[in-house]
Amino acid sequence: MLFADVIRSKRDGGELTAEQIDFFVNGLADGSLPREQVAALAMAICLNSASFDETAQLTLAMSSSGTVLDWSDMGLDGPVVDKHSTGGVGDKVSFLLAPIAAACGCFVPMISGRGLGHTGGTTDKAESIPGYNTAPDFETFKNIVKTVGCAVIGQTEDLAPADRRLYAIRDVTATVESIPLITASILSKKIAAGLDALVMDVKTGSGAFMPSHERAVELSKSIIKTAATAGLKTSALITDMNEVLGRTAGNALEIEESMAYLRNDYRESRLDDVVMALCAEMLIATGLEEDHDKALERCDAAVTSGRAAETFGEMCAALGGPTDFITNSAKHLPTAPVTRPVYTSGFLTEVDVRGVGKAIIELGGGRRKVGESLDLSVGLSDVARIGTMIDNDTPLAVIHASCDDDAALVEQLLLDACTTADEPAPDRPVVQEKLTGDR
């Protein structure tokens, strides 16, 4: 089979056969397909989309392109469940949700990705923690999940290797936003992880890959329907990404905010709403709770009691991180040498969150090309919420940069990305809608 013929078929709007898709996935997994041909097919799919059958075939083929985890022999006394976000700016939910769900009786084998496009990556953020091993062997990973209740790691070479290669190429070829490719990428990893249930956080807004609510619903339905073909029970919450989630954006800075949340020192309200809603849905999806309000109470108690923080600390130490990280995170995390507050005036009414994500890339906190190393210390803190009155005492954000020139460049990018007015904008809910297999 000539792969150029496969590309040509999709370029001209044709539907790929199962044999063509399997040929593509095998070439991804063993590295035999050149990057330019992979990029060409990804662009053809991005431009011409793919049918449900094509998407399901691509998902299942990529999920079985490497190791498929089986938890049946581990003697777990609770459900195996995970959450996945479609990506945003300031989205540090994984580091909160995994230990909270584990403290509530779930087992959470969270296999995450690196930054994609303008969005940050959970794996990159975890690597801000000194010694933290984001790529343990599967035996170590499974034992940590069993003993601690959760483990947040990166995608390994053995798990859905076809997706790992395609993911990296999509990141730098403007082919991220395709619903079939997003569906296949997410679910191939989650199916391979051997889950009982999955809860999706589908972002919508200026910082999301699905900027409109309608597209977010379309993606949610694609994921839920495709997951059902593999027997994976999936539900989705559509959440707002029209502003940075939480008060920080950038790898180490987001880890520090996450530790403050788990210590119950400070829980920014929009971030808290998303975390609690997703965690409650995990409990309901797995049958640990039937009532939404009781599920929320159980999740909140996991934080206020300190059980979730203790769980994160155990996970961090088990993966090679500092044993005192929860209590002394600031001591261990890298810090940027330059900080600069950004000021303007008026009520903050609108944010181009994609522009904020690109500003993080300009600082060195995100990638321009495959394999590029990151400066994990840079980013933004003290990020203002929409509705905040910005003045000489209250900045839009504080820039953390490696040098004054980078800080000056990003200051202008932030000012360009933010709109102020004399009157505050109306408040919008952060959790917008829930979708399940029944709807």
Radius of gyration: 21 Å
Biggest sheet character: 4 strands, mixed
Count of domain modules: 3
Series of secondary-structure elements, N-terminal to C-terminal: HHHHEHEHHEHHEHEHHHHHEEHEEEHEE
**Poorly predicted runs of 5 or more residues:** none
CATH architecture type of the largest domain: 3-Layer(aba) Sandwich
Task: List the strand order in the largest sheet.
Answer: 1-4-5-12
Helix content: 40-55%
Total DSSP E strands: 12
CATH homologous superfamily of the largest domain - what is it? Nucleoside phosphorylase/phosphoribosyltransferase catalytic domain
Query: What is the fold named in CATH at topology level of the largest domain?
Result: Pyrimidine Nucleoside Phosphorylase, Chain A, domain 2
Q: What would you call the structural class?
A: alpha/beta
